[in-house]
Amino acid sequence: MSDESDQKAARGKGGEVHQQAAGEIKVLTTQQGSPIADDQNSLKAGARGPTLLEDHALREKLFHFDHERIPERVVHARGFGVHGYFETYDSLADITCADIFQRKGEITPAFVRFSTVVGSKGSPDLARDVRGFAVKLYTEEGNWDIVGNNIPVFFIQDAIKFPDMVHSVKEEPDRGFPQAQSAHDNFWDFISLTPESMHMIMWVMSDRAIPRSFRFMEGFGVHSFRMVNKEGKAVFVKFHWKPKLGLQSVLWDEAVKVNGADPDFHRRDLWNAIIEGDFPEWELGLQIFDDEFAEQFEFDVLDATKIIPEEQIPIRVVGRLVLNRVVDNFFAETEQVAFCTQNIVRGIDHSEDPLLQGRNFSYLDTQLKRLGSPNFTHIPINAPKCPVHHFQQDGHMAIYNPKGRVNYEPNSWGDGGPRECPEKGFISYPQEVGGEKQRVRSESFADHYSQARQFYISQTPIEQQHIADALAFELSKVKTPRIRERIVSHLLNIDQELASKVAEMLAIEGLPHPAEAALPTRYDLPPSDKLSILKNGPQSFKGRKIGVLMSEDGNAAVLKYLEAALQEEGAIYEVIAPHAGELKGSDGAIIKIDEKIDGGPSVLFDAIVILPGAETVNMLVSNYAAVRFVSDAFNHNKFIGYVDAAQPLLNKANIEDMLDNGCHPLNDEASVQAFIVKCRDLRYWKRG
Ligand code: HDE
Known about the structure:
It comes from Nitrosomonas communis. It contains 19 helices and 18 strands. It has helices at about 5-10, 55-65, 160-170, 185-190, 200-205, 250-260, 265-275, 290-295, 330-335, 355-370, 450-455, 460-475, 480-490, 495-505, 555-570, 615-620, 625-635, 645-650, 670-680; strands at about 80-90, 105-115, 130-140, 140-150, 220, 225-230, 235-245, 280-290, 315-325, 350, 545-550, 570-575, 580-585, 590, 595, 605-610, 640, 665. Strands 1, 2, 3, 4, 5, 6, 7, 8, 9 and 10 form a ten-stranded antiparallel β-sheet that branches. Bound molecules: CIS-heme D hydroxychlorin gamma-spirolactone 17R, 18S.
């Protein structure tokens, strides 16, 4: 590896690190800068003799390799980070003195890390899981981290339960499996004994937990926070990230297959979109409310297992997050980034949510363990981009070491600085607190079922069925009957029909008694349409991808119309064929193949188009992967465009008699355009 000055020189020449100017190959060196003559052979006593301990180059190379790994995050180990910026739409000075919200059009650099929670670093992207949505905003007055998830509630109400909750869902300690799955006894045992998790369970069993892409999911700060203005007046706020491309999830059967076909599905999607210049965007929405609302709201705003429906407190959109740059080095940025909930800035403050309070200890502590030094803020990805002056010094890997004599405050050297500044500094909101010191859960946190029910009844029938199927799938992997039954007893407090469906799929005879509840379920909470994915469809195919199945002499004219229509829509396609390389279209022109059929199953695409040559369609008919490409797409309710020549393949896939309005014959420009308009619905649900 080149040293720092070498890297700078390389960068200065406009090149990447390691990129060499013509005729100027760099000499490989040790870490100490000593040129290496032979990097293929270790130093031996004779050609076939033992290796000598004296071989400093070998020892240094192995030593460094042995220490390449740092502890993976105990949760959210598998992540993917990218750079971007946040743009403030309008000044929010009336609500907060946070510098980032003072000026219309202010641009603040950002780094975002998406993650799954349960699996280890090498686990597949499409596990049924919560997704982390952590945003670091490098503001002019310090780093502000919104360490959120793609689900607005959490499993537990108090931080003291977090280690139990996480232990239960990770691999079981005796056997070390299952990996990246909640479908096992320990998790459901814990859940069945933790009724406060029921609302979260509804979300995690819904399609929210199997998103199609990071680009098509929402983000939430989860807790109530405070915003404080110049006069010291505070309001509560909840943070929402709304994807411009809308929401979209995959089906469970797709998730299972995607994990095999492309375990990096989500990260590849984000990487490709950014590399192609199709920068994903989210808008930051605030739910702003005051103490008066908090007092009369039917649940406690400090309880992280509750939402405030958007119908009750509408969202105010205040800016946008644009992700426009991939990392240069995964380890340096994505692995070493250290999010901390306690990284807040003047004008934003915590609330007394007991989950958030515990997190404020946990994140700093975890970074020390992971990164090995209190100087992790010296690592470029964690370093603020505004001036930093303090007297914290020394420690492992101290990179920025102040010069001169002063390392304490107050001092009388020079101008005596740096000094604290009450006008500019962070001041905690003086919330009045008091009471007896006690280990209790507030009674206002006691209703565990009403919002779980509200979430369930807000879904379309298709989404409700997915929740029932997911519960039955997960519980079918639980081997202990009493755990299954305990879950059904909770479901009875949420929705009778849901409980019965799940019990039936698990062949539980006779429903158990409903679980005892501290408070009865409120059946009067109205549905909230915003909680459904399908009720909030994007009405656009932008950012989506079509898989075009072709063989030699495939229909080049339709492909051209498709390319134009997709470009217009902001979507893309990939060509799939029985072999890799290239093929000749019907017009004789060469078409580049993106995936050989067994590497490009239809689960990787949002819709498919079948464009074989009339003489060569049998290459596809006799190919099992090609037949499944079509039948899977059909069974996954995808839109299918096809030319006449595709008929034998439709026959082989056994769908020729079932072609419906989601299957669209393509022959001219108009038919292709009409097909893309259909694709905006993302799936043809009527197929059943
Ligand atoms: Fe975390 N969480 N968490 N968490 N969390 C971590 O920090 C923790 C919680 C979230 O991409 C850890 O650096 C406690 C809620 C994200 O680097 C750790 C509690 C929410 C990420 C930790 C919670 C989150 C983490 C593991 C309950 C959504 C990944 C490694 C009191 C609002 C950040 C690390 C990244 C990571 C602790 C609950 C989101 C151990 C104690 C609720 C997105 O410190």
